[in-house]
Amino acid sequence: MKNLRYVLFVFAVLLIVPAVRAQQMGVKADVPFDFVVGDRAYPAGEYILKAALSDGGVIRVENVNEFSAAFIASNPCTKATPSPETKLVFHRIGRHYFLHQVWTAGSLAGHEFPKGRIEVELAQNHLTPDVVIVAAVISR
Fold first, then answer.
1. How far is Cα of residue 134 from the mean position of the Cα atoms in its chain?
2. What is the pLDDT of residues 62-82, one digit of tens each?
């Protein structure tokens, strides 16, 4: 019985360690255009997006070029099949780009950002967004 508890403990630790590491990883992307997340505008550049809290609800958006960062609330989103690539998904309405989702390769779960005031106003004008994908890599 003691051996069984030990084996279960080791097994639990082996399952927890990758989950903790996954929370510490971020997504790094070179965004070639200015964009908006919520109601905040960001210039084109290299960004690292990383969960700020263990629950992943708040994402730290760091501009590597300007050494600036902001914290943005996100909502969890899921897919039926794992994402085939690590990517940022933007909605383009007219000449405006809005960060919509972040996905990590091999994961069923991603992060979705709430629409800001400008995106809502443009959508009310019956403008249909185009989906723009920016390739990203997993970063530590």
1. 12
2. 999 888 899 999 999 999 999
> For residues 35 and 98, is the Cβ–Cβ distance under 8 A?
yes
Measure the CA–CA gap between 28 and 68, rounded to whole angstroms: 15
Tell me how far CA of residue 62 lies from CA of 14, 82, 90, 112, in angstroms: 31, 26, 17, 17
pLDDT, averaged across the chain? 84
- Token reading at 56: 């992943």
Which residues in 22-129 belong to E strands, given as ranges? 26-31, 35-37, 40-42, 45-51, 58-63, 68-73, 75-78, 87-93, 96-103, 109-112
Q: What is the pTM of this model?
A: 0.79
Contacts of 16 (CB under 8 A, 6+ apart): none
Nearest residue to 48 (alpha-carbon basis) of 80, 76, 88, 16: 88
* The amino acid at 113: F
